[in-house]
Amino acid sequence: MAGGRPEDMPVVAAASEGIGDPAGSYHGPGTSTAGAAVLIVVNGPIARELDINAGDNLFGPGWRANATIGRAVRLVMRNVCGSRPGTLDRGTLGHPGKLSYVIAENEAESPWTPLHVERGFRPEQSAVTVLAAEGPHQFYNQLSNTAEGVLSTLADDMRISGNVMGQPPYVLVIAGEHMRTIAKGGWTKADVRRFVFERTQNSHAHLKRTQRMAGPVKPGDETLMRPLVEAPDDILVVAAGGRAGAFSAYIPGWGSKRSSQAVTKEVKR
Amino acid sequence: MEILDPTTEAAQQSIAYAPRPASLEGKRVGLIENTKFNSDRLLAKIGDILKGEYGAAETRMWRKHNSSVPAHQEIIEELKRTCDVMVAGIGD
Description:
The complex is a heterodimer. Chain A is of the alpha+beta class. Chain A has 9 helices and 10 strands.
C-alpha cells in the first residue's frame, strides 16, 4: 500500500510507537485544525542500511524509504486510527508532510552529537524521533561566514512563526554549508540552541499589536519579552540537507510543549 | 491468492447516554472549558442562560489540563459527584 519494503518495518513500527506515546498526544495534533504532520527523524545505522536520505533534496522526492516509511505511518493513522480528513482529521490546510515527512540525520558528515544520542541512546543504536510539526520553513543566508551571522538570519526569520503563543518545540534542520560555517566557529548544538533561544523573543507589545496576544498594549509591554519556546532544550537540532546551498530550515511543532512533545523510540530489529 | 486487509472496524461499543432530565429546574450544571481562548467566557454565558432562563440551580466550571487531551479522571469524578448535567467545549 505504501510501497515500502519489509526491511522498513522496524522504522515504521518505532514511528508508530512514537505517535502512540502520550507525550506526543496523538489526539491533539491528529485532529487539530492546525493540520500538523508527523515529522520523522531517523538516526543510527538503520538510516544507511535503508538508504534514508539525509542530504540533497532532503524534504523532496527521490528516495523510496523517505516516501514509503512516512506514507506507511500515515496509512496507520488513516486506517487503524481513523484519522481521515473531514472526520477525525480536521486540518484546515494540512501540508505536504502529511504525505510523508521522513528525514535522516547526516551523521556521517555532522560534527555534532546525533539527535538520538542527545536524547539518551547509544550511537550504535538506531532510533526514530517523531514530532507533530508544521512544514519546513526555509531560510537563506549566503552572506555570513560565522555562526552568529547564519543564526541571526535564522532567528529573525523564525522569531514570528508557528504558534508563537503556544510555545511548542522546534526542529532546526541545518544543511551542509551552514553546518560547516557554524561548526567552524566551534559551536555545538547546545550553543546553537542557546543563541537561537535568546534571539527569538518577542515583546508583549509586538504580540498584541500583531493580534497574537489578547489585550491592549500596557506600560511595560515593549520590554516584557516572550520567548518563542519555553527553554533552549525545546529546540532540536538536526544536521541534514545538501552539501551545497546556503539554505537551512526551521520547523515549528504543534500546540504547546505541554500538549505535544518530541518522542524518540528505539528501532527494534 | 491471499488478501490481507490492514483496515479494521472499531469493536462495536454502545455509548449509553445518561437519560435526559425532563427539565433543568434545580439542576447543578458542570462546565468544562478546553483552555481555548474565550471558551471560559462562552461557557460562563451558557451557564448564566441555563440558570436565568431554564432554572438551573448553580453552575461550576472546570478547566482541562490542555486542549489536546480529554478531561482528566479527577475532573470527571468530581463532576459526577457534584453535578447533574454538564456542558463541554470541544471546538476551536
